[in-house]
Every structure is written in structure tokens, then in C-alpha cells.
Amino acid sequence: MALAKEIMGISLVEKSSVISSSKVFLNPNFYQKENQLCVNRQFQGRRNLRTRRVLRQSPMAAISENLIKVVPEKAVKFKVRAVVTVRNKNKEDLKETIVKHLDAFTDKFGRNVSLELISTDIDPNTKGPKKSNQAVLKDWSKKSNLKTERVNYTAEFVVDSNFGTPGAITVTNKHQQEFFLESITIEGFACGPVHFPCNSWVQSKKDHPGKRIFFSNQQPYLPNETPAGLKSLRERELRDLRGDGTGVRKLSDRVYDYDIYNDLGNPDKGIDFARPKLGGSNNVPYPRRCRTGRAPTDTDMSAESRVEKPKPLYVPRDEQFEESKMNAFRTGRLKAVLHNLIPSLMASISTNNHDFKGFSDIDSLYSKGLLLKLGLQDEMLKKLPLPKVVSSIQEGDLLKYDTPKILSKDRFAWLRDDEFARQAIAGVNPVNIERLQVFPPVSKLDPEIYGTQESALKEEHILGHLNGMTVQEALDANRLYIVDYHDVYLPFLDRINALDGRKAYATRTIFFLSDLGTLKPIAIELSLPQTGPSSRSKRVVTPPVDATGNWMWQLAKAHVCSNDAGVHQLVNHWLRTHACLEPFILAAHRQLSAMHPIYKLLDPHMRYTLEINALARQSLISADGVIEACFTPGRYCMEMSAAAYKNLWRFDLEGLPADLIRRGMAVPDPTQPHGLKLLIEDYPYAADGLMIWAAIEGWVRSYVNHYYPDSAQVCNDRELQAWYAESINVGHADLRNEEWWPTLATPEDLISILTTLIWLASAQHASLNFGQYPYGGYVPNRPPLMRRLIPDENDPEYAVFHDDPQKYFFSALPSLLQATKFMAVVDTLSTHSPDEEYIGDRHQPSTWTGDAEIVEAFYDFSSEIRRIEKEIDDRNADTRLRNRCGAGVLPYELLAPSSGPGVTCRGVPNSVSI
């Protein structure tokens, strides 16, 4: 019977003297290959034959065949053990502590946590999955007071020898309080330990009566490969996640559904707080967001009622920040509140708008803090509501801002034209520069609506800056480039300029590529809406020749930067890497099982996105939120974002190579390493980004080709096809009929789609997010809004400008209150979270055991990321090629400087992120 026990997995320690020296039964490969020998009833008739074959192939060939006869023909009961890892909260409020103690007490009387194992096989009697008995977690009451981060509990199951391989486990929580289930490991089966990575909140049965289902990580299964015993559970889990599209969602729910953006305004507070609905049948196309089901407002039945801070906004429970992330978020929010507190108090106490008087005022934000060097002397402290608290904070330097990296090497680099041009290709928004193909540039706006939009740019404006070339020669030689915000801003300018304290142009900036391979700005066109047939709505500013012209030029560049800041935040950052990804994430949870290989590939890149987007709707992009307060478009911010979605966004051009070709920054060239030739060799975003793109694509290609060897596998995968179809037809319903959507019919199609999604969620997001404070933290370098237009010689303000152009320049920048609010936000956005994940990190825990081929491909990808990181670092050290000022170009944003190696998976900062 000792050998029978070995085969049944009852004891790997107790051995009879006959087989005490055998190692074959301790070999994991043996159990993996021959697990069915002891657990599958349908092969009972061939058991002796198969056992003989195994023993003949093993080193124990000398074992007598008579020994095999001790294996019983009937099913044998045996025990297996579950080790359940629960993660404790570091901090609990009073209510949680009381309920925790109550659960510990009632656990002794049957209100406990129970588990049930599910086999991959079908029970021939019930025609359903084979199930174990219910097993209860032991010692919950004894271990409930442990303060460790993780607590391990055990449970024991009794199963038959023909149970098969465990493929799923259900968990029932009869306590009053939810708990975070990290993992479950089943020990005692002949196949070896079976792992269930859970990483999920398990709700109380009173909140969610159904059992929670978790699948093992033995390997991913395509839908048609799902073991018979798991098919019904796979379908049931997806049905639960989809919900029925009705009702108000509770914070404990795990339901993923769609809705339009109808919760940005609050019409109950007044007409000034009403905002248009985005998405749906209102002719304002926009991606869908996660549905919450809240009741409508009292004054507008089509608008969803608001949930204001500090009350949380619904996202599915497992999408909410984990504790370490939430703690970092709260710390960042506290810092942001403090950085806004003093300017707000100053504004309320004094009638002065507190404009910056000069560069020293701005510098003092980093060196002296907000209190003592900006007018708040001791007598002012006495007027503050909490002087002791504020003064103690001041002593701890919490009201000082970190010095932005743009100032770290050269405080006046931002004033120079070469730095202004460098940021167009290596700054926080390096994705709008295009090769100029026609001069003068042409608008695509409808002339019947906006009038004839002929450019004011003429050859005489730029001819003297082309190194002796004609304009046509410069175009043909790929030497002229443009950052064009004319069509983005012009439709909104009348309304923007009617806002209090907001003045803007629609700008175009022309750059010339010098013989040294660097860009220089040579002309800026400033456009306003036409007010009549003879209206001077456009003007051109060129590099200065005198002091007055210098300040005129600086003001023009500031307006360009203000345009750039708005497009960066509202279009490139929020729309492209947050809002447009949300439908793909919702569809992935609704249509792809946790067992699906594509779900496992995407899962790390979907983390936190729904929570961040919900927080953005609550505080940042909402009516009177931070974005409206800080950026030029004001209350029209999200309408501008929606216009860009309608007119500019195309999924097929969101990948890096396609985007570079679309903008004319590269041309296809099979002789080049990545199949592209950059027309500006020193284009850090593109040069560094293409290496990252290629690494991601290589990893995705290895992964997809492993699971989808041919097109039939792709076309016949009903979950995969449902995910992609729903992402387009429901998540992007307003653009679903566009012809540019890629098809999903071949492995190559799938590789392209997945590479684009992962690029957007990781490297693209990081490049647009983590450099915000290094550049934007110094407001003159990147003002988020402007308050004054540039005066013409015939304007009454021109005399004021001419008498003191520096004073006029600072009066046109954001006020102290606006500047510090913006600085606080971008400081928070640019900070890495302590639980940041990095693609390519060798220490990143695997979400499934995987086979050797996939694991090896991931390690190859990891090594490639590190090689790229080193190459970027080495190239950045070569200052002969790039005159960097220390600001965060792509390597700084992509490759986290202190949190660890690799590219950020989600690129999530430690606060609300847009």
C-alpha cells in the first residue's frame, strides 16, 4: 500500500522499505506526465500497461511488476491541503476593527470562510464538474489579530483518487467584512502543487450571495481548449462581470459596463456648471466610460448626478487602488492641497491678484517656499485660520516646490530658441511636430463655417532663416517642420477669449532643420477668428532684432506653449492614453476569461486605469475642476478633447511607426533597424521610442504565435473576437463605422492591435505623463494658460507693453494662484507610485506557470529592455549629439529613474492621473 499512497499523493514522505530509495515518484516531471495514472477513472483499464511503460523508461526499471499490483482498482479517498494567503490592511478605521473582531468571534460558530475544489473533469454521475467537499479555513479567530502584512490559513479537502486535476476553486465568505485574497496553493496532488493567483477582494455573502470563482495558473486556455469541467464556470464568471446593465452600482460590485460622459457637469448648481454630454446620439462623439448607474440630476434627466470628494466614485472593486497606492495618492493629495492652501488664502485676504513681479518671485517657490517670500510675513500668519499648523508645515519645507529639472543645469535655457525647439522633439509633448509639406500651411476647417482660413505666413517671413535655400528647396530637402494648433483651437477661440482672464490664439510654429541637425524656430503665426471682411485676424512674429522685439517673441512662444500644454493634456495624454483605452479594458473584463492568454497578457497594463479615469471625472476634467481652472480652454476643455476624437483620432495610426509616418517624421526604409528612417536623426522621442516599440512587438509576436499558429485559431476564438468587436461597436460606438478600424483575422492583425494597446498604456503614457513637472513645474517655460494677447502698435495696451515689457510678460502668465495650482497638479502626476510595475522586470511575478517557450520569450524581452535602457543612458551621456538641459526627455520618462528598471506598465503616478 505504500506505493499506492505514493501514487495517490497521500504521502511523499512516508515510504515503504521497498521504494525508499526511489526518486522517480518525487520527480515533478513524472507527476506532470503521469498524473492521469492515479486520478483519471476513464483510463482504469489501461493503468497497469501505462505503469509498466513508465517504469521501463525510468531509472527504477528493476522494480518488479508484481509491486504494481498493489495499486487498488477502486477509488481511494485522500486528503489535500490548501494554503490560503490573505493580505492584511496596514491601517484600519474603528468600524473595520470592530467588525474584524466580530468576524473572529462568529467564525467559531460557523460564519466562516469555506472553499470548494473544482476538477477539470466532468463527473459521470452528475454530468457536471467534479467537486470536493466544502473545506473551512482554520484558525481565523486565532490569527485575526496578527499585524503582519500577510497571513496564511489552511484548509483540508478529502477527494477521490479519480478527482482529476484541480482547475478552479470557489470561495464563500460568511463574515461581515470583505478580505483581500492574494493566493491559494493546493498541496497533495500527484501532479504537484496547484497555484491559484487571486489578488481580489472577496465580498461577504450578505453583499454577494454567489461563490467567487478563481482559476488555477497551470496554463492559459483558449475557449475551445477549456477543460470540460471548467466550461460552465468560465461562462458564469464572465456573465457575472458583465452584469445586466441596470441598477446603481455598489462599491463592492465587480460589474463592468458602459456609459457616456454625462457626469462631468452639475446643472443642479447652476447653468455655469452644466456641461455637454459626450458620446451617444448627441452628435458629440466620445469613447465610453465605466457605467455607475447613478440617479439623474434634478434639473437635467439626461445628466448623471455627481459624487463629490471625498466620497468615492464607483469602479469595479478590484480596479480600486490597493492600500499602498492609496496611501501614496493621499500623500500626494495632501501635498497638492498644501501647495494650494496658502495662495488661496492670500487671494481671499488680499484684493491683489498676486501676479509674479519677476523671476525672483518664481524662484522663491523653490528656495523659500510660499509663506515668507511672497508677502506672508509674521503679521500675515496671524490672520490665517491655522497659524500653528501652517507654520510647522513651513518649518518642515512641505510648502516648498522641488526645483524642476529644466532649471537644474541652466536657469535660462528655457528662454533660448534652441531649447524651445528641442522640447518639440524631446519634451513632454513630442508627438505634435510634423514635417511641413506645403507652404504656406493649409487649414482643413470648413470655410462655410469658419471663413477662408488662408495662412498669413509668407515666404519673406522665413526666407532669411533658410541658410540660403529657397522655400521650395527647404521643403524638398525635408528641412521645414511645423507644430500646428490652428485647426484645434480656432473653432473655440471666440468662447475662450470671452472667459474672464483667458486669452489665446490659434498658433502655428515653423522650424528649420539646421546643418547641425538641430531645429530652430523661424516664425510663429497667431490667429484669431475673423470678425469682418477686413479684420486683421492673423499676424506673424519672427525672431527678434531688438529688445522690444525680443519680448514680443517671448510672448509669442509663451502662447505657443500654452496651446501645446492644452493639446498635450486634453488630447495626447487624457484622450489617447486614458479615455480611448477604457473601452478596450471594459471589454477585456467582460469578454475575455481570466484563463484566456490574451487577458493574461493585457492584465498588467490595465491596472488602475479605470480608477484613475473615474478620479479624473470627479476632480480634474469635471466642471470647475483642476483642468478647467488651469488650462486655457477653461470650461470648453472637454469639448475640445471631443473634437479631437472626432476629427483626429484613429486607432490604426496610434502605433508609433504609423504615427511617425503620418506626421512625415519618418519614411519606410527596410534597411534601417526598425524599418523606418527618421528625417530628424536627433529626435529622442522617436529614436528611443522605436527601440521600446520593437521590444514590445517582439514579445507580443512570440506570445501570439505560440497560442495562435494560424489564422483559423484567431477567427475561431469567440472570446477574442467578442472582445475586439465590443471594444469598437460599443466602447467606440460613435466611430464604429469608420473604415480605418483594423480587422482581426490573422495572427499578424492581433500582434499589431495588442502591440498598439500595450504601447499606449505603457511607453506612450509614460512619455506624456512623467515629464510634466520637470518641464511644467517652471511656469514661464510652459504656461498652461495666458491672460493677455500680444498688443499691436495700434492697441491702447501697446504703450504699457513698450514701457515695461517684462512686467507685461509676467502679467500675461498665470497668476500666483493659478500657477501654484497647476504646479501642484503636475508635481503629483509626475511622481511614481511605490507599487509601480515595469514591463521587462525579471522579478515581476508571473500570472501563470506558463511553459518554457513563453517564459524564455519573456526573459528575452526583459533582457532587451535592459539593453535598450543602457543604450539610451549611454547616448544621453554624449552631449556632443544632444545639448540637454537635464529635463526629462523620453529616457527619463520611460525608464523610471529610481523605482526600478524597465518601462512602466501602466505609467500610473501616485495620484489622480490624466
TrEMBL record:
Residues covered by region (Disordered): 282-308
Alphabetical list of Pfam families matching this protein: Lipoxygenase, PLAT
SMART domains: LH2 (SM00308)
Ranges of residues in domain PLAT: 94-216
Quaternary context: Monomer.
Family to which this protein belongs: Belongs to the lipoxygenase family.
Name of the protein: Lipoxygenase
